[in-house]
Amino acid sequence: MRRTAARLLTGTAFAVVTAAGFAAPAQAAVSASGGSLDVYPSTAVPGGQVTVNTATCGDPGAAAGDASAVGAGPFPLAPSTHDGEAIGQFQVPPSAQPGTYEIVAQCASDGRRVAGDLVVVLSSTREQVYPRGSVKTGVGGALGPDPVQTAAGVTALAVAAAGGTWLLHRRARGDGI
């Protein structure tokens, strides 16, 4: 019993530590001034929109961003609805090459500089995947689109409808069934 409990606790602790390592968001590089620039998404395709934000600049939270490394040029960071944060956006140029690029921002109030990394890839790993093939759920549709079987089914339904109508008509006339 003890051995099983110890294995369970060890396995759980390992799973928690592993999940914490993978679940941590892609955090931006921390600059010498102790702040960071969060880049979302941290991986983008050419032509994609990227949002950056930082809480390093404090109040009023304005900053000047620079994405020249990737070819996007300067962009403004304005105070956001979150207290003391600055947020800005830029578009990755369609001509951007794959690689890791440093995105920087300089606070307007005190000139502090923060940086974060953007990874450019040629294709997104989040592409929509469409199902292919048929669902194997039993008789309904499993026989395939055979025209002879389809015609036989339609004929059987038509005969059943005609027979039901005839019986209801006889019953209504009072012929008795």
UniProtKB/TrEMBL annotation:
Residues 1-28 form the signal peptide. Keywords: Signal. It comes from the Bacteria. This is Integral membrane protein. The lineage of its organism: Bacteria, Bacillati, Actinomycetota, Actinomycetes, Kitasatosporales.
